[in-house]
Amino acid sequence: MIEDKNPQRTSIAQLGEFGLIDHLTKHFEINQPSTLKGIGDDAAVLDFKDKKAVVSTDLLVEGVHFDLAYMPLKHLGYKAVVANVSDICAMNAKPTQITVSIAVSNRFPLEALEDLFAGITHAAKEYNVDVIGGDTTSSQKGLIISITALGEANAADIVYRSGAKENDLLVVTGDIGAAYMGLQVLEREKQVFQVNPNNQPDLDNYTYLIERQLKPEARKDIKDLLEKLEVKPTSMIDISDGLSSEVMHLCKQSNVGCTIYEEKLPLDPQLISVCEEFNIDSTTVAINGGEDYELLFTIAIEDFDKIKANPNLTVIGHMNKETEGKHLVTRANQKIELKARGWNALEE
Amino acid sequence: MIEDKNPQRTSIAQLGEFGLIDHLTKHFEINQPSTLKGIGDDAAVLDFKDKKAVVSTDLLVEGVHFDLAYMPLKHLGYKAVVANVSDICAMNAKPTQITVSIAVSNRFPLEALEDLFAGITHAAKEYNVDVIGGDTTSSQKGLIISITALGEANAADIVYRSGAKENDLLVVTGDIGAAYMGLQVLEREKQVFQVNPNNQPDLDNYTYLIERQLKPEARKDIKDLLEKLEVKPTSMIDISDGLSSEVMHLCKQSNVGCTIYEEKLPLDPQLISVCEEFNIDSTTVAINGGEDYELLFTIAIEDFDKIKANPNLTVIGHMNKETEGKHLVTRANQKIELKARGWNALEE
């Protein structure tokens, strides 16, 4: 499906470990005032001054988290950064640095790694994070990417998962479910391609869904938006593993229950029509599909007026007493219990 | 070679990703005042106050960096932490936190991961670092461990690779080469075992070498020692990839050359006798063998009197003009050019 437009193959073993690292990291710029020393010593040195440091880490494994049959390496590099930056955004903090470690099998030529690092560099520029360290080594099989993201925030601005209160409104940014359906479309095209490699896929009707899957963005804008609206969320999390799974984290750590209204879920029109085409229930997709990298947060009910007109934010329900449980209220006004069916990397 | 003393096997898929993470991380304690929030949110929150933060990261891959045939998982967990903590020590900083991400194939039962985490927990306690985050996922093949270590230091105390000056003395802590020879002994025993599994290895003559390979320690004591001796190194690096490779990093980043004296290299008597047994030149081992996790640093020549009596520190040479090159002076007073032949993870 992905044509090899670059027939040149340079063996990474030729360069050696240090040569490879030098080659791949030479384009990284340092732009954050908190970065005193980036790549090139035993460790990077950072100065967060009176701000708190926020640290998150993620491990992405080929064949588990991504499939190179339809995920171009440049997009993969970009997405790997986005997934980590999103965790920093979910603390209401500003992403500032990342470290990037990769392990690759010898089947990857240098040109493939250059593509991967081009995506990482592009994302680092887009999100204004400095690449301050990492490690490059070989793997027994496939590609593994480990990223650690750092950010900074004033102590008073940081939002945890544990602050939601009964009656708080539950708010989601953007729309949800599209990344999951994008993956379904790509999986189908992969199968078509395997049957007939000459088949040229027509993906015009799926552009938004595919973009959400292949080039998602982290909501770095939300911190500023909420500041402008003068709203501080009481709890927050990012939606990487699916809405139902994430809202249950908020409930568990805040000791509350929740009620979500099916009719309030923000779905893109393309998602709805493609769900129909695939004969999949769009609510199920919106609730359980992961990788949207939107933010889910709670606000005090008094703050409703401040956010209600904003097109980026949708109130999808509210928190309630823990003893009242966690429910989805359907369009037919049925109350069904929420189950976390988010993505589980350990399932076979 | 490693007997399976625990026949119980619990599938990690049964627990699920969050269950597994809860299970493995419940014993981690928070002891550092700079850790405001550890595991359990989108990110950890740290407060370094007026200190600088120091960050380093490493990726360890089964079959590339370690062999589970002779590396018990508990030792592996311990060593993975040590390798990262050592990078923080090499900045003359105090290790404070780590994140630990692992990817495992389904052949690993829960009990194996418990062993790995027991080693990580033991090291975290020994080095007084808080485990503040991580990720646990499945791999296509083998075990992958990604650790990011954080530390703190006063700006004035941090030592970079780039500060060495002409005529500075080159100092190494402890002794070198033993970890490499420990690996050779283990490799030999593995081959003996493969030929005859009933053969019981007698490792009494190799205990020190094997311990250096299987349970190395990072030199967290050196920062305090140097403070007590009132010496601030001009440059520093840890010896993970071999002395020759590491000294060349110091030379390159400090724009100097160096002269190392063969007769000064600190070798353990056991290393010398086992090198004879294996018919390997002990100097070659001391210069090129990695994984000792000792520190290599330079000091101003005026500071020599302060360190000369210390049994932990050995002056092995000095820095010189860059144009004079990098040399080893042999016992026969021959001057041979140093070549970095340190370990390269990308070689086949």
From TrEMBL, chains A, B:
It catalyses: thiamine phosphate + ATP = thiamine diphosphate + ADP. Mg(2+) 4 binds at residues 42, 56, 87. Its EC number is 2.7.4.16. It is an enzyme of class 2 (transferase). Pathway: Cofactor biosynthesis; thiamine diphosphate biosynthesis; thiamine diphosphate from thiamine phosphate: step 1/1. Substrate binds at residues 65, 291, 343. Mg(2+) 5 binds at residue 241. Coiled coil: none annotated. Residues 40-152 form the PurM-like N-terminal domain. Keywords: ATP-binding, Kinase, Magnesium, Metal-binding, Nucleotide-binding, Thiamine biosynthesis, Transferase. One of its GO terms (molecular function) is thiamine-phosphate kinase activity. Pfam families: AIRS (PF00586), AIRS_C (PF02769). Mg(2+) 1 binds at residues 57-58, 135. Residues 165-304 form the PurM-like C-terminal domain. The keyword Plastid does not apply. It comes from the Bacteria. Mg(2+) 3 binds at residues 42, 87, 238. Reaction mechanism of ThiL seems to utilize a direct, inline transfer of the gamma-phosphate of ATP to TMP rather than a phosphorylated enzyme intermediate. Belongs to the thiamine-monophosphate kinase family. Catalyzes the ATP-dependent phosphorylation of thiamine-monophosphate (TMP) to form thiamine-pyrophosphate (TPP), the active form of vitamin B1. This is Thiamine-monophosphate kinase. The gene is thiL.
